[in-house]
Protein 1
Amino acid sequence: MIAKTRMDTETLARFEAEIDALRLEVLADIGESDARHIHRMRHIVQGLAIGGRSALMFGIGPISWVGGVIGLSLAKIIENMEVGHNVMHGQYDWMNDPSLHSQTYEWDIVCDGDHWRHSHNVEHHDHTNIIGKDHDFGYGMLRLSDQQRWKKFNLLQPLWYLLLALNFQWGVAVHDIKIGRFVKGRMKKAEFSERMRPFLRKAGRQLFKDYVLFPALAFWQWPRVLLGNLVANGIRNLWTNAIIFCGHFTGNVQTYTMKEVANETRGQWYLRQILGSGNLEGSRLFHLLTGQLSRQIEHHLFPDLPATRYAELAPRVRDICARYGVHYNTGGFWKQYASVLGRLFRYTLPTKRRLGAVQSA
Amino acid sequence: MTTSRLQPKDSHSPMRRFWRHPLLAPFNQPEAWNRLATAVNPVWSLTEPRARVMRVVDEAPGVKSLWLKPNARFGDFLPGQHVLLELEINGARHARCFSISNAPRNDGELRLTIKRKDNGLLSTAAHALRAGQVVRLSKAQGDFAPRATAGKLLLLGAGSGITPMMSVLDGLADEGSTRDVMLVQCSRSADDMIFADELLKLPARMPRLRVHPHATASQGRLNAKKIAELVPDWNERETLLCGPDGFMRIVESMYADAGLADRLQSESFGRRAAPVDPHASAHAVTCENAEQLFTVATGQSLLDGAEAAGLSPRFGCRRGICRTCQCRKRSGTVMNLLTGQISGQGDELIQLCISTPQSAVELAL
């Protein structure tokens, strides 16, 4: 494992200023092309959804079924990753379009928008990879760092991971309810049911749409619609899970303790974002299908810049990292995913718990 | 600009309620249908008033009229009312209020007459519009019009302040009104006079209309004394006023001094922007919903200031990344503490945790 980069105060300040300058430069350039991109993505999502669902409902034979499943899977993947995730970060708030507003957007997934805005935008993006504060690290069920306590439960974590990957939207949906706290008696019943309510409402609507409304509209063709929707949701789950795990759980990704990040400066925050994330390399289409989360490092440095800008930012961030001796974690999908699985297996067995050193100023 | 403006009114009919039920999504999502409709014809919408630009007419130096044909969502309007015109400028939507400058016509067209301001984002973009383009509108709003149906009228306009007057006059002429109406219209010179030709023709339709053009370049600015000379019976007339801030202040104090403030109606958009002073130690902040007033020190974030005043706005990261504390600023100027950028004066979204006031600020909090 690569050691964490340490910088003296002065170097850190220069490092911070360089990253800040990148942000300002892109901010000043945001405009029509970004608006056109998100509009286009929304049209593609709508087209794919109408096409895919129609093929499932009115198509005949297995080929149209497969086509329908592919169309609907792509619609859900692009809607969740390229539109929903990015819009909810506020990347397009500057457009002043109420239908693309970060605080009111609702996406095509069982996770309630407000729950996501809290667990993702606040907890995960602010407290990235801080054990105990970033609940995305291990999703409360996986041990992926020796800074996490080992439990017998972790012996079977490859199996837990498989279940999580297949049902990823449900994992994300219950994430902000913090069921673990309720089970351990650290949350009152009233608060728990309060937190459950948005989840149940959203999940009910999604289940009704995919497994009642659309199958019913296909009359006698309902089984192929129901099955198609189930498979499409599943494909989306596996894909989003794989991409998101590659973003934070590859072998060289660093974790932090609360003690380490006490009195953190913005420069140190930037450093933690870089060292706590990993990029994926691939074609333009690949990046699009990941909602640009393949550039996780740039996304974590600038979560509210339009995601298509990460492509132009990536080489420049990489150059800054090279000059300051900061490890820039990147690789192809299969290499990075193998590294994630390696990490998953490594921590199934107990290792000595490492307590993080205080981050030097 | 809120979504509510674009949404239809709540209906209580059971059929409507059923159709709006969230379980019927995506079939009942107007956004999705609007996108499909727009693909066929950009002026079609189930919810949004939109209009096609029919023609663009030069009225005076730096002044153009847009003739707009709205869709059915726009509904009706009354003379003297205004609309929000929303344009997409470099990918972002911007809206400003403009008075309609004609009375309702059989062909449904309406006219917005817009003076181009230096550095005026929206007026510049409006002047660049061409016939055939589609713009977003609000429904007609406002109640700027004579309240009494009879009696003597005085219309005081200056510059582009003629626009609602023109609409009111056009409406009165259509009714065949025989009211005694006096229009005093200030402009820099005779060449700058908007609607000069139309105003010449109007008395033929309205026998008791008198139009007095006043050129400030040669005759000086109007003040209370000059108005009283021009219109000796001003204090007997119901008065409508529209123009630049300075002109309106003069007339308003004239009426207030005479105890006739209730006889005067004023119309203005975006006047009296709060003065920007980055060196002041603190600025006043008003909250629209909480009806609370507090002060925030220069350099202090609005979030810290609001909390110190006992308010508890939503917040998340407090470092400008999560947007939980994002809030609409109605007016005022703020500085972004991360980037040093100075905001505009008008309605826009800001993040409370990284914004510090540079003038008095009004928040939709």
Note: Chain A has one domain: 9-346.
Protein 2
Amino acid sequence: MSSVVEQIQSEINKLTTNTQKSNVGVITSLADGVANVEGLSGVMFNEMVEFPNNVFGIALNLEEDEVGVVVMGDMSRLKEGDEVKRTEKLLSVPVGKALLGRVTDALGAPLDGKGPINSEETYAVERIAPGIIPRKSVDQPLQTGIMAIDAMIPIGRGQRELIIGDRATGKTTIAIDTIINQSNMNKQGEKSGDPDFRPVYSIYVAIGQKNSNIMRTLKVLEAAGAMDYTVLVTAPAADNPANQYLAPYSGTAMGEWFMENGMDALIIYDDLSKHAVAYRQMSLILKRPSGREAYPGDVFYLHSRLLERSARLNQDSGGGSLTALPIIETQGGDPSAYIPTNVISITDGQVFLDADLFNQGVRPAVSVGTSVSRVGSAAQIKAYKKVAGKVKLQLAQFRELAAFSQFESDLDAKTKSQLETGKRTVEIFKQPASSPIPVEIQTTVLWILQNGFLDDVDVKDMVDATRSIIEYFETRGEAVAAKILSTKALGDEVVAELKSASEDWKRSFSNS
Amino acid sequence: MAGNRKQIEFAKKLLEISIEDGEVNPERVTAILEELKKNPPAKYPKVLRAYLKLVKKEIKKYTAVLEHSGAISDKAILELGKELFEIYGRRIHVTTKSSEELIAGVRVSVGDDVYENSIISRMQPLRSISL
């Protein structure tokens, strides 16, 4: 019997085979998602390493005697003494259009039960941001569909605009509405057959969120038909900190594919406060020295290298763009905490959401005075710039005046008029969730406001009037709106048609 | 970890003087141990443990463990020694170990590097798929 076995073995031994070389190490200690590994002498920083049972990790701490590896996966399947192998690969995720409509984890693996993702390419999760030469200034708008933002804090393609505010002030709603608006515009653009139309693909990265919230977001996007142009990358609160740390980088790699292939993409990081917390947890376990608020010294670099990857590329580099809308949660409305100030200084502006405004019923609760867009106004279309140019200043002045007027019983006529206009403007910017307004309609609404058609409408009726204007220009006044969209300017002819349509609307509104 | 730094540094110096012609010299190690016994340094056990770890690691660098399933000839061992000399640029001592779990083939470990040509390593991808 044994001779038969030996015979087969000697035959197998004779076969021409390829020897595999690997660099290995051994787990010496294992705790809280981090494995210390002795060996792995050739491992690279950020390299993927393979544990037994198909568990992977990333080498993050390269020390003289050992390597600190963050485990991504089920740690209960590992034990001290287990062999760890180098993979000689940097962590990569699938990229491409095959991801659209899919929900993935931080490593790009599908979570939606729709089968494997048929992606032909992969991108490394950590990549160097585009340099100075391939970049171009922001000059094309990215309409959020939220009038308060598009009019006063306009965002351009390739910009990084922070959405900041306390919990439950509508930060995620702004992000979701922006995605929905891109989807609506994409559908409209594809339908029009315009060869110059550039769709915007969206990537929503959920970091440290409750699974129920992610599910709600998914349902909203599905209901609006926006998932066709969207990728959802999730690292929920129950996921290990390594995955929460990686998710934004994975999402960015997916977005970069669109940018580098001459397309436009939008990425939402919801939210980077939780991302910083996950990184702090990982760093403390890795025994890295901690600094302010126990965050490690490189927490600024954590976010700067992430957000620098969003850019507008010039024509020689394909002309693509990646716009980033990071979200930061503040505590007690204080934007001067460590992480908020870091991200504020990295981004090209911020949309500040005020809890008091939110509670007063002003939704979206955009605080005009503290919100700014440093580059976006260059991207506004001419027609819109003409009608929205002074609105931000007027509204900021109104807020100041309104605060002072509380102490004054007798006001002069000019102040009263300013207050009335301000109240009307506040009302006009109120907008329900999940109902983005197309840019041409926004232009008409603001034109009507600026040209006194709403002066005799009671403040309490302003929301109804705005809704009525939107309905009118989506139906009877569609031709004028379409002309604004195609010409992107308010020429004499368009203004004349707009005036006539506005008078028509006014008559019908007054009669109703 | 930080508290052991001095002991580790001391153990590193001991290792340095233990090496002769690129290998740990047993006579030198014996002499060092005797000297340490006579004049024990602060935290002597920690120094010894760190020294042991470093010596083991150093020996591992020039020792190849050849695991094999089935018979292996002396000629093959000699050839392997020559091959490893080519790769590492230093003399590598080859020790053999029978390992039936390979099913067939060999596995050679030198320091952190593993060269494997066995049935079990070929079956690994299949195992990953089935998991």
Note: DSSP finds five helices and six strands in chain B.
Protein 3
Amino acid sequence: MLHLSIPLWCWPATLVLLAWGTVGLLQKLSTNYLSAESALIWLVAGYVLLLPWLYSSRSIFTYSTRSLVFTLVSALLNTLGALALLAAMKNGGKASIVVPLTALYPLVVVVAAPVVLRESISLLQGLGVVCALVSVVLLST
Amino acid sequence: MSLQATLRAKWFWYSIACVLFWGAWTILEKMASTEIPQETVQFLFTFGALPVAVVLLVGRKFKLEKSPKGILYGLGNGVLAGVGNAALAAAYRAGGNTSVITAATAMYPMITVLLAVTILRERLTRLHKIGLVFAAIAFIIFSL
């Protein structure tokens, strides 16, 4: 008999799916009125709107420099990734190819995690990752 | 398009750059979120993203389209993308395998497709239906 247990990470991950899934819809709608570049600028402005709710009285300098730098660089890479996606579209890439192709970014994590994070995945988890990636590619077409 | 032509195409390399940037983003966020709480991760994230927005603004000489609807959707995108990113940091903090969490959260087009069907009255294609089946299988495997 199948034993299903919901791991702790599933709850925030569900919120990620709902939030980013809605972003996907709003992106379709926003680019009816804005260029993709403007949409990206307003997206970052939306981040700024969240700042009052995210502000913590704890000084950020109580965290290690390493973690602070990683967070800032991760944000920069995330936004540069979005720019690269726009550039791919501007340089003749068809959305039906570029979007599913770029959705394969978890592959980088699968390849790098054993080295960088000292994490490996089981055969079953690997099968789940493959199913997830196939689903992402098909759903992004 | 032949493989050779694809490998020479700029769009292909921009796409690969995007994959690498996003892969590195998630790994760094995982590493940072083991120490920094999700709200602070997203707080700092804003300041990491701002330089790119400023460069784009300068490149456009501060000229943006003035569509109120577009601006509203754009801002909504940012708020939800920020909430999603904070939730991703929370998922990483909760423990579990990073590759699995990254792959599971990357399945968000599933929600986009379902919303497009219910709100925009778009039709599910055959590929979408097969994609939803694969997503369901992935979810079952992840909860075994």
Note: The mean pLDDT of chain B is 93.
Protein 4
Amino acid sequence: MKRLFTTFAAITAVLISGLAQASGELFIYNWTEYTPPELIAKFEKESGIKVSVDTYDSNETLLAKLQAGATGYDIVVPSQNFVPILINEGLIQKVGVHALSNFKNMEDRWSFPEWDPEQEYSGPWQWGTTSFSYNSELYSGTGASLKEFFEPSDELNGRLSVFQTPDEVISLANIYLGIPFCSEDAKQMKQIQDMLVTQKESVVAYNSETMSDLLASGEAIMTNHWSGYSRLGRLTGAPIVYAYPKEGVVGWYDSMVVPTSAKNVENAKKFMNFMMDPVNMAILTDNQGYGDAVKGTAAYYSEELKSAPEINPPSDLKVFFAPTCSPKAQSLIDKVWTKVMQ
Amino acid sequence: MSDQIQKPSTRKGKKVLPVGHYRGLSSWTIAFFVFLYLPIIVLIFYSFNANRMVMNWGGFGIDWYLKAFNNSDIQKAVWNSLIVATVATVFSTAIATIGALVLARGGNFRGKTVSLGLITLPLMVPEIVTAVAVLIFFSAIGMNLGLGNVIIAHITFCIPFAFMPIRARLEGMDTTLEQASRDLYASEWETFRFVTMPLLMPGIVAGAMLAFVISMDDFIITLMVGGAGSTTLPVYIYSMIRRGLTPEINAVSTMLLLASIAIITAYWILSKKTQTSTEH
Amino acid sequence: MSDWLPKSAAGRRWLGLAPSYFVIGIFMLIPMVIMGVFSFLEPNPYGGVKPVGSLAAYIKIAFEYDLEDKLVFNPGYLNIIFRSFQLSFGATLLCLIFGFPVAYYITLQPENRRNFYIYLVTIPFWTNLLIRTFAWIIILGRGGVIEAPLLATGIIDDSLRMMYTDGAIAIGLTYSYLPLMVLPIYASLEKLDFRLLDAASDLYANRFEIMTKVVIPLCKPGIIAGCILVFIPCLGAFIAPNLLGGGKKLMLGSLVQFQFASARNWPFGGALSMLLLSVVIITLIFYARAAKNRAAMEGSA
């Protein structure tokens, strides 16, 4: 019995000690399919740090997870309008990005941005646009207007897919209806609500992750999409076309930040620095098909990427970046979305 | 009792079913099992699909199994699952064993029903409620041990699963052997260690296996409670499903399936053996 | 060595039960109490709660502040709750219809084969629910296992559109919990004395009457147990509605999870959970009462 007990205690001790984090690790929490394995492999080889990647599907999920007290993430990747929220809630920490050695490679127009004026918190990841995509074999439209998305024609026949979280859907609605972002006017939000509720009749699913699969299988004929992610879908052979409507599209900028509860801050900074090297950033951009904020990456793009329509929008395209909404505006957005989702 | 059920007899050349038999029962049962096993067969079948899109059959190939094997994220998830399941099984089985000893042998004491209710509580509460409550709890007291949180949650809900077979075994065990041991001047402890425990062991092993499978399969609680780097296999499969439907999911699922079936078959064989061994 | 065990029987009982009380008490009971408390607090707009008391979460179940901040009746969540009950009842009924004949059939088999059938019934249940539900996506999906041959042979020209519907969720739920219906019914039927059937037949009962007036009443405890074992998990189900419902057809379980994932309204999630828990407790109380009544009746018979 004594032997049993000591063996049991020994096993437990070994297992628990295995849980203690070793040094030389990095935990990345990023959007689904947003972290190319070859990029991670390169970083691991060059730095000797072991990297793990977990994924989420939206800014809202990221915020919810961090708010619930999830720890252990060293790098998370929020969009620009969520960075101030994370700062205000004390969820991310200053790491002095402007002092990192590769910071000089950052493009001027993206340095010291509105959401991080002293570049203390965030390092660049990718920026891109949000619009909608369609299956060109099943749809005769050309995506010339957001009307095709918000007031779908009968051709769609109930095969429309919309993002599962409100943020960008509402922003697109704002653009289409000409309502300013972060409106605190209830009447204006009611307009958006009515439109979304009517749109729901044509929706087959609210999905922020498998849009390309839905388009490829024909389960959906049109879906909300992001520029680069749509390109990835197209590259698997499916006839997916990313639309550039005349009213404009939503622009966003994702950056890497370090949560306050991070355990490997130094390694996180090393990774941020690594990404500001044009060679490495080009690997990411080539893989993802969005835009990047580092000088000199274009030289490393593959041929296919250079001509991809998803990163070469028409020159007259209107791109709108959403700011962080006030709590009052945010609560209106939540009310609208709750109504739509019921 | 089964000898009371007669075989169908033939009278006037027409097959007449005896009392209690109904036409179509066997076909219904066959249809039932087809329904039950169809998804499993589909899962295994499509894991050999050479095409990337799960639903369009593109030929036979084991590429996805190779891909799954080499996927380090999967390996990490499996490792996490095994650690959690092992530790949770050890602790929950130990706790359940002593609990069962008290509840099955202690007679009718005050608080017996309450204790029984408490131990089976995790079974009755819907999993989502448990998951959410534990998340709130850990967040409120600021406990953040990563995988440790998951292990604690698993120990908690595995207890009733380990408890049931052990208690069943205890109730089926008659005490003559133990009484004989005491009559032969063995101390209480010696009786417990050399007579009771070995007799009980099949029940304990059955309980442990059950707890292990339950822990390996758990998804919703681990999803809500887990922190960074605590992805277990079911949680990883979920993220794979959300990322896109490739046959890699099928390959991983098939392997998980076969592992579960192996354990359950072992459990079944073991319980058959104990049935026959106590029936002399 | 047994000297460190307490001498009194009560002492030993306490020792044996203490770990269970400790673990389940701290990691289940207390969390549920905290969850109950949280449901009476105000939500923090960015997740978590504010230490301010409020009934807002419970009011939200049936009412809402519309865009003009007026309190109006809101059937939306009640619809979701209603749908959850509807689908759970439906799944329970389907399980009963499917499962009862099978349990009966197994009982008719010779003893040594019965255990094998039971083993076959339980295997799918012990395998991962997530992957079994995922398989249904492949079966019901566009161009999937059901549609592909039908499309190929021209029986249908377009998709049957089975995915992302209430029906898909119902199938998923039924499938998930079918064994839980079969096993208790079988356990009840196994104890059935088949000579009663012969007696009934001798008394000129026909096949139908034998089933409805003899068999079913005698295995009622099993049927009720099976229904409860299916109904309760269905109410709180999360996987089937999520994977097969496409985020459009929310059920109680997925609605609760949504509050903690994207919606960031913990008190509301807590309130819904308390609602779910109350239904479970009420169901169990009814069950316990019915069991006691039956025992009393049988005892006095």
Note: Strands of chain C lie at 41-43, 49-53, 63-65, 71-73.
